[in-house]
């Protein structure tokens, strides 16, 4: 896994996503101008209004942390509430971590210590890596 620590979500991230998401796809110059207008709106917001975005950011960060520490479900019906809250966009970003956790759980499974059918004493190497 990566030793890189990702930055935590902030109220600004949520505010920016909501306001720039409404605009759709923009060319670089238009995006920069829209981002500048969004930053001016953010700076002019009262602290009480900013607090709502901060709370949303904290909630989403908690959901991301919970999900990233949970292996991928084996069936689609096993999707948890935090996964539904975060949505597909957020899940795509942390799916590799979850896939690696699945593989680690799979490799640590006691079945790899049992003799296998080819006559060798155990499956010493365990499963082969697919990541």
Report on this model:
It is a single chain. With 131 residues, the protein is mostly helical. The chain has a domain at 11-68. Helices cover 59% and strands 0% of the residues. It contains four helices and no strands. Helix 1 crosses helix 2 (28-44) and helix 3 (47-68) runs parallel beside helix 4 (81-107). The protein starts with 10 loop residues before the first helix and ends in a 24-residue tail after the last helix. The model has no long low-confidence stretch (mean pLDDT 75).
Helical stretch tally: 4
Order of SSEs: HHHH
User: How far is the first residue's CA from the last residue's CA?
Assistant: 11 Å
Please estimate the helix content: 55-70%
Q: Provide the gyration radius in Å.
A: 22 Å
Mean pLDDT comes to 75
Tell me the major beta sheet.
none
Quick summary:
The protein is built from 4 helices and no strands. With 131 residues, it is an all-alpha fold.
List keywords for this structure.
131 residues, mainly alpha, 4 helices, elongated
Write the layout of secondary structure elements.
Blueprint: H1 11-21, H2 28-44, H3 47-68, H4 81-107
């Amino acid at each position: 896994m990566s030793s890189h620590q990702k930055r935590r979500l902030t109220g600004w991230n949520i505010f920016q996503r909501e306001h720039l998401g409404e605009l759709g796809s923009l060319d670089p110059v238009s995006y920069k101008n829209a981002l500048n207008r969004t930053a001016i709106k953010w700076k002019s917001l009262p602290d009480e209004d900013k607090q709502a975005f901060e709370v949303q950011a904290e909630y989403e960060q908690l959901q991301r942390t919970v999900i990233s520490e949970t292996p991928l479900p084996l069936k689609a019906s096993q999707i948890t509430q935090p996964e539904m809250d975060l949505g597909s966009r957020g899940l795509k970003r942390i799916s590799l971590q979850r896939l690696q956790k699945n593989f680690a759980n799979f490799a640590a499974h006691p079945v790899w210590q049992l003799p296998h059918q080819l006559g060798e004493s155990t499956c010493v190497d365990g499963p082969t890596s697919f990541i």
